[in-house]
Specification:
With about 700 residues, this protein is mainly α. It has a domain of about 210 residues. The protein is built from 26 helices and eight strands. The strands form three sheets. Strands 4-5-7-8 form a four-stranded antiparallel beta sheet. A two-stranded antiparallel ribbon has the order 1-2. α18 runs antiparallel to α19. The chain is globular, with a radius of gyration of 26 Å. The relative contact order is 0.09. The N terminus and C terminus are likely disordered.
Length: about 700
């Protein structure tokens, strides 16, 4: 049997060069590879290093990233306009020029992958739960972006950039754009000019979603850095790990402040609070149970209303001196159940129409209430306060965490105490980056309490930080993390949580080896880039889905969303039904034939269908469509090859399989499955795999 995927393992990713930008320019005029392909490659290029700090006082301080994160967003308007016409049935027809080739104003909507904020406002007021979920997501996104900046530059960004006269020009929020997938917008800013002067002034309306305050949906943002003189961003200092004396895991770096303190997102202004009273007056007025914030380690936190102003202030200062640990006040932002999508709220990624439903959980204990958890945490701190403060070495912290986890397993009559001990053990596991311990604690939580295994894994895996503690992880721990992360990401793909999946894969990628002959990190990076691009395409495809739901006879909307499902996501079972409604007769015919061809059809029928997909791919004008077509062709060729006797037909199928050998798989599903095969485990039913892990853990505990 010829195994295509094993042969693909010998592929190497070519090192990106500045020549890519020349190719991109050619693409915009209709020649060469697609705009999409070039932009994905460009997202991996290396930028020039930052100017030295000695020169930064005399020159423009722009906090330019050395290596923009994958996820550079493209002009999806052009892609959407040409999707249904990408395939041509006439070999001699001339390709149409992309719409991007036409002249547009400097900052028109076609320039960016994001529309002005006035066009992103919801049709009706959002519920409290919906606003809370958006803000929770924003905090996590911004914290992740800041940590990516740290991983790239070995420091956090300055609170604002300055021009050659050392005058403030733009906020850190602008410098962070490449790490949020908005490099195209970042490059339009002039860092030598103030935020309210052109061209910067006209860019204000393109506020990224992560900065949008869900209470208002305007160009002001509630997400500010603590820039008081006692805080890490005060006096525009450069926050480095060695200068944060309390440790990054014990220092707050981001707040959601009260509405009256919201500022234009590009304005170089943040939270100026120089004392306890000023800080206390600035927060706690948006959410009813506390303040959303984030530690400098990248972990989101709910600063509960039960905390004192002094405790929050000590958590924000960066100088050592006070006997403070994050574990003394930390509370995870509760994951509240999301209401079903309706006409008054944007369609969520978890809409049941095109996503798998949550699996039913076995009989487990209910999650304790927030009030009960808060009370138990105070008891826990009193019991373990001395042990926590005495645990200076990593080995001491790990030992203490394992002791807590053992006590939690034995505490059958105290579910609240069990829950908070599990949480404390998880935080210590994060602090020491003990992957084995963290996964064991997650498994224990899922086995004991009625939590969603996917959401529980998502919550804790997203909090893993690749800091100076990374080398402490073992090879076995790295392997377990990679496997678990891929399972979680695969569920995210199935449920259209592409941004969440990208974050999880990005974390796992940081713990993989970087050996040249190791395929896992290369494939994982490919998956990460593809997930970032898929998130942008999905947002565009949602409008097509909405149109189709309102009018099931709309062939254009059905085709566009069907192409997203099949070509980008890899959900052929769902997408083919939509492509079967296409006005493109060739595409419609093949989709219909694919639906009618069963696994028990003859080998010749499989081969014939594969040939149809192959030929369609040959007529595609972009790799983004050619690869999925060949991917589907390969699916049927492999089934045909298994059954065909030695014959010309078998030789033909073999040659076609070998012809696909030099291409990478196109869709997210296929890429995830290929990565799983390289990691030597099966990726079949991911939710069952998570619960199977729990069952295995329970068996081991019983032993």
């Amino acid at each position: 049997m010829i195994n295509f995927f094993d042969r693909c393992l010998n592929l190497r990713f070519a090192a990106p060069t500045p020549l890519i930008w020349v190719i991109v320019c050619c693409t915009l005029t209709g020649c060469g590879a697609s705009q999409e392909e070039m932009l994905i490659r460009a997202a991996q290029r290396r930028r020039a290093p930052d100017r030295s700090e000695a020169d930064s006082a005399k020159n423009t301080k722009t906090d330019q990233p050395r290596a923009p994160l994958p996820g550079t967003q493209q002009n999806t308007a052009d892609q959407k306009a040409k999707q249904s016409s990408d395939f041509t049935s006439t070999a001699g027809s001339k390709p149409k020029l992309p719409s991007s080739a036409t002249s547009t104003p400097p900052h028109s909507e076609a320039t960016f992958s994001i529309s002005p904020i006035e066009k992103r406002q919801p049709n009706a007021a959002l519920s409290e739960n919906a606003r809370r979920k958006i803000s929770q997501r924003n905090i996590l996104t911004l914290a992740t972006g800041l940590r990516r900046h740290f991983a790239d530059t070995k420091r956090l960004p300055r609170s604002y950039t300055c021009n050659s006269d050392n005058l403030p020009t733009l906020s850190w929020r602008v410098a962070l754009l490449p790490y949020l997938g908005h490099e195209d917008l970042h490059e339009k800013f002039d860092f030598t000019k103030p935020w309210n002067v052109e061209p910067n002034k006209s860019l204000l309306k393109y506020i990224p979603d992560a900065f949008v305050s869900p209470e208002r949906f305007d160009t002001n943002t509630n997400y500010l850095l603590p820039a008081g003189k006692h805080f890490i961003f005060g006096e525009n200092r450069v926050p480095r790990e060695k200068t944060i004396e309390d440790g990054m895991g014990n220092t707050i770096m981001l707040f959601e402040v009260n509405d009256e303190l919201a500022v234009p997102w590009t304005k170089p202004m943040d939270l100026k609070a120089d004392n306890i009273a000023e800080l206390s007056a600035a927060i706690g007025g948006v959410r009813n149970d506390g303040t959303f914030a984030a530690w400098a380690s990248g972990q989101p936190v709910l600063l509960s209303n039960t905390l004192t102003s002094e405790e929050i202030f000590h958590a924000t200062t960066h100088e050592s001196g006070e006997a403070f640990r994050a574990g003394d006040i930390h509370c995870d932002i509760p994951l509240k159940a999301q209401a079903k999508s309706n006409s008054s709220e944007p369609l969520s990624h978890g809409d049941d129409t095109f996503n798998q439903k949550r699996i039913a959980t076995s009989v487990r204990q209910n999650v304790p209430s927030e009030d009960d958890i808060s009370g138990a945490q105070k008891k826990l701190r009193n019991i373990y306060v001395k042990k926590l403060r005495d645990a200076k070495e990593y080995s001491d912290k790990t030992k203490l965490a394992r002791s807590m986890l053992s006590d939690a397993a034995k505490s059958q009559s105290d579910p609240v105490g069990t829950y908070v001990m599990q949480t404390a053990a998880m935080r210590l596991a994060l602090e020491t980056v003990d992957i084995d311990l963290l996964l064991a604690a997650i498994d224990q939580r899922i086995a004991r309490f009625d939590v969603d295994p996917y959401l529980e894994h998502l919550n804790w895996l997203q909090q893993i930080s690749a800091s100076r503690l990374k080398p402490r992880t073992t090879t076995l721990g790295n392997k377990k993390l990679s496997e678990r992360a891929l399972i979680v990401a695969y569920i995210g793909i199935m449920e259209n949580d592409f941004s969440q999946a990208e974050q999880v894969i990005g974390i796992a990628y940081q713990f993989t080896s970087k050996k040249k002959d190791d395929l896992v990190p290369r494939l994982m990076n490919k998956l990460r880039v593809s997930l970032s691009a898929a998130e942008n395409r999905f947002k565009e495809a949602l409008s097509d889905l909405d149109t189709y739901r309102k009018n099931p006879d709309d062939a254009e909307a059905a085709t566009k969303f069907g192409m997203f499902l099949c070509f980008t996501k890899g959900d052929w079972d769902t997408g083919l039904a939509l492509l079967n409604k296409s006005e493109n007769k060739v595409l419609q015919e093949i989709a219909h034939k694919d639906q009618q061809t069963a696994a028990n059809s003859t080998a010749l029928e499989h081969a014939a269908l594969a040939d149809m997909w192959w030929d369609l791919g040959e007529r595609a004008k972009s790799l983004s469509h050619r690869r999925p077509c060949r991917e589907r062709a390969l699916h049927w060729y492999l089934q045909a090859y298994q059954q065909l006797p030695d014959s010309l037909d078998r030789i033909h199928v073999k040659s076609r399989i070998e012809g696909i050998d030099s291409l990478e798989v196109g869709s997210l599903v296929a890429l995830s499955q290929q990565l799983a095969r390289v990691m030597r485990f099966e990726l079949s039913n991911p939710r069952s795999q998570l619960t199977a892990t729990v069952r295995s853990q329970q068996t081991n505990d019983d032993d």
